[in-house]
Write a structure and sequence with these properties.
With 176 residues, the protein is mainly α. The protein has one domain. The protein contains six helices and no strands. The chain is 69% helix and 0% strand.
Length: 176
């Protein structure tokens, strides 16, 4: 059986997003525990300005999510037919979009009743479930070899960074 191969642009965008999402999720958990905690708090507290750290992670994640979403809707649209992939991307869009609409002072001031904040909390839960479902589906479909193919540094001819625009253009022109 041939080893799975993922396009290099997908691996780059997916890998960068996969690094930032857990950072955003964990920093969001700390922000929630410190400033809200209506449904429970962590049994420990870490010093620091977690709202600003969470916002900084979001500043990096926002353009990555945008590029990843554009890739998914163009060259990666066949992969969006898999529900786990589509759900994970939609959860990411909801999390980033609702986060962009929030005001960092709301939580500091104890303003927990904003609709956008409720949507952001829902997105926080959805992204945890979606990432779990996504990983489970990858392991079911292709096992460890498929999961490893996302971390591979191998490049095939025609899959170098200089080839990315042609790949996207070809995918947009295809009739799939």
């Amino acid at each position: 059986m041939a080893r799975p191969y993922q396009p290099s642009l997908l691996r780059l965008l997916h890998g960068a997003t996969a690094l930032m999402v857990p950072l955003a999720w964990l920093s969001g958990l700390l922000v929630y525990s410190i400033h809200d905690g209506r449904f429970g708090r962590l049994p420990f507290s870490l010093p620091g300005d977690w709202i600003n750290l969470h916002g900084t992670v979001a500043v990096v994640l926002w353009p990555l999510a945008l590029l990843f979403g554009l890739y998914a809707l163009s060259a990666g649209r066949a992969r969006l037919r898999l529900p786990a992939n589509a759900i994970a991307l939609l959860a990411l869009v909801l999390a980033v979009g609702s986060g962009k609409l929030m005001n960092e002072h709301w939580l500091r001031d104890g303003q927990l009743d904003h609709l956008v904040y409720a949507i952001h909390l829902l997105a926080w839960l959805l992204i945890a479930l979606a990432v779990g479902l996504h990983v489970l589906t990858v392991l079911q479909r292709g096992g460890v070899p498929l999961a490893r193919s996302m971390a591979s540094l191998q490049l095939r001819p025609g899959d170098l960074p200089g080839d990315w625009w042609d790949q996207i253009r070809r995918s947009l022109n295809s009739k799939r």
